[in-house]
Structure prediction request, 303 residues.
Amino acid sequence: MNGLFERNSSIRSILQGRMLTIIFAASLYLTTIHAHSADAANKPDKVLDAKQLDALLQQRLNGALGDSFRDFSNMFIVRSNIDLGRTVGLIGLSSEVADAELQPVFPKFYSPTLRELLDTIALQTASEWKYDPSGKHVKNDTKTDAESRITIFEFAPVKRAKPYQITLAKGWMCLDRGHWVLYSPPAFPIGMDIYQLGTYSFDSQQPGNLEKVRDEVALQWAGRVRKGTKLTDMTHTKVGAYDALFFESMVPSADGKKVCWRQWVFTADNTCYFVVSTIFPEFEKRIYPDVVTMLKSFQIKKK
Prediction:
């Protein structure tokens, strides 16, 4: 990813600013962007007021995620300018945030708002984001206001509470991994995982918007374990009070043994959830009834 910023000629045609340096917090990394001058009359205000900030956060963009936060942030300097018409810098305020791996969550057809993308990144990096208008992360090597072209969001580590709750079966334990939680039964390392896969909004409130998200996510995950899977291969069920798509298939494990893959995908409170359980046949009777019981207890916490 860092090599992207060495190709200054292509960046000059995108960023439309002057020589400036973005200094990423905690000395995690340093990126220098060279760009040619632009019409000052077209520059936005250096500090966004509440209305301008809200308008920026409501803009939609490419929701693809991947790589570490550090590498993604490097790439996002260019991509945000293409998608939003404004350069956006993402600053990790700890090495844990900067090193965290970002995972794709949004279906290909969906373009999240900038707010939804920042929320997803914060969830996956166990942090919270805020707009930073101070300019402390930007060094301007010219005597111009070129830094007014970049908007900075900081990500500070924080302990995040889950928006949902389930009742653990006897002896089960859970381990919070940020955007997903590992639930494990007694004397066995895996049993069930629950993932939060983005929050969604729609400019046009058409019936079935969230169902389309659910269906696409279900197909993407099922297709990873069995190519050619269709919606007709899935059944409708409930997770708590929520309508879910359920899919199961026997798949080979890393050691060649067969394991039963089961997945549930549903939306609740405009958030998409993916639940997966992988159980070896010999442990089926001991583990799967607990999984079913725990999923029945799923509920969104009251705000």
Observations:
- Residues 1-45 have pLDDT under 50 and may be disordered.
- The CA atoms of residues 88 and 151 lie 5 Å apart.
- The chain has two domains: 2-157, 164-300.
